[in-house]
Amino acid sequence: YQGVDTTSVTLSWVMYVLGKHPHVQDRIVEELNEKIPNFGDGKLTVNILSSLDYLGRTIKEVLRLYPSVPFIGRQIYKPLTIGDHTILPGTSIFINVFALHRNEKHFENPEKFDPDRFLEENKKDRHRFAFVPFSAGSRNCIGK
């Protein structure tokens, strides 16, 4: 059941965003019509889905602004020093994904909905952990 909640929450936000930004919805429809001209024939493949670039960027932007997992919890297992502070083993910490994804250091105009911020040329200089909708590293979400 772990993926059910995150999927339903994400799809709900996608529908909200499409309603709020009709130009995004129109562009997705254009992309679908272009890449899947015979959508009703039942021949939708993983390759076709992977080719839907604008739809993919739109979903990433939805996950950035409205993460289905807004906080990630971890427990420190060895001393961790950050600046002048040491966090001791056994301490619970939380990463505020919602705030991270709206950090101006990583995302210009962070409150603006802009799927094109996920174009290769726009994300090439971004820190690899600036966008972590399903966590990152060795404890990353298996369903990602």
Tell me what you see in this structure:
The chain is an alpha+beta fold and 144 residues long. The chain is built from six helices and four strands. The strands form two sheets. A two-stranded antiparallel sheet has the order 1-4. The longest helix is centred in the first third of the chain and has 19 residues, at 2-20. It is elongated and about 60 Å long. The model is unreliable at 137-144 (pLDDT under 50).
List keywords for this structure.
144 residues; two-stranded antiparallel sheet; two-stranded antiparallel ribbon; disordered C terminus; metal-binding; heme
Give a short summary of the structure.
This protein has 144 residues and is of the alpha+beta class. The chain has helices at 2-20, 22-35, 46-50, 53-65, 97-100, 120-123; strands at 71-75, 80-82, 85-87, 92-96. The strands form two sheets. Strands 1-4 form a two-stranded antiparallel sheet.
Please report the number of helical segments.
6
Helix content: 40-55%
Backbone CA Rg = 18 Å
By DSSP, the count of extended strands is 4
Query: What overall form do the CA principal axes indicate?
Result: elongated
Strand content: 5-15%
Task: Give the overall average pLDDT.
Answer: 88
Note the main sheet: 2 strands, antiparallel
Q: First CA to last CA: what distance?
A: 14 Å
Order of helices and strands: HHHHEEEEHH
Give me the side-by-side strand order of the main sheet: 1-4
Low-confidence stretches: 137-144
Helices and strands: which structural class?
alpha+beta
Main location: endoplasmic reticulum
InterPro entries: Cyt_P450, Cyt_P450_CS, Cyt_P450_E_grp-I, Cyt_P450_sf, Cytochrome_P450_Monoox
Keywords: Endoplasmic reticulum, Heme, Iron, Membrane, Metal-binding, Microsome, Monooxygenase, Oxidoreductase
Membrane topology: Peripheral membrane protein
